[in-house]
Amino acid sequence: MPEIEKKIDRRIVRSKIALSEALLALMAQKSFTAISITEIVEYANYNRGTFYANYESKEDLLNEIITNLTQKFIQSFRAPYEKVEVFRINELPANAVMIFEHFFQNSSMYAVLSQSDVLPKLKESMFTALKKITQEELIYSEKDHEIDQELLAIYSIHALLGLIFHWIESEFKYSPSYMQEQLIKIINWHPTVAKTALRSSGK
């Protein structure tokens, strides 16, 4: 690649990073809907021409941020099984689970997004991506034919995302390693009996 093209590419990358950081910084102060493109470019110390050279709207900028985060999340989700032909879930070691490391490493971004008016959009992006790869990449050899596989996938994904966003909303109360260990224990826990409140009260 010619040197001039490398310089242009670097400038594009720098401007995109600056615009993304500006949007996230503004979202920490106000809702996404209340932010203008003028505010974004002024915060980033660029002009509107630079913004429109890269994006058509602030929604395009937000979509890029969410898409990039989702792709990195999916990479971390794939980590335990991407290099094996048979994925033995019941033998999965806690330190092979990389999703919590991903969220912790990007904690500042997730903290802002989880408290903003774009949270539903972020969750939808991650849910859709997870549903796609679990249905296309993880084929269970032993299926309970009475269980609807799509409903099972939806149940499992919502449970995982619920756990993750609870952790984010708790301001990362626990370490990634603790969350890894707890997830493995939850996956392998199969209770069959539970005492009811009536039994516990001795009535």
TrEMBL record:
InterPro entries: Homeodomain-like_sf (IPR009057), HTH-type_Tx_Regulator (IPR050624), HTH_TetR (IPR001647), TetR_C_Firmicutes (IPR039532)
Residues in HTH tetR-type domain copies: 13-73
DNA-binding region: 36-55
Domain of life, per lineage: Bacteria
GO function terms (MF aspect): DNA binding
Keyword Oxidoreductase listed: no
Lineage summary: Bacteria, Bacillati, Bacillota, Bacilli, Bacillales
Keyword tags: DNA-binding
Cleavable signal peptide: none
Stated name of the protein: TetR family transcriptional regulator
Keyword Nucleotide-binding: no
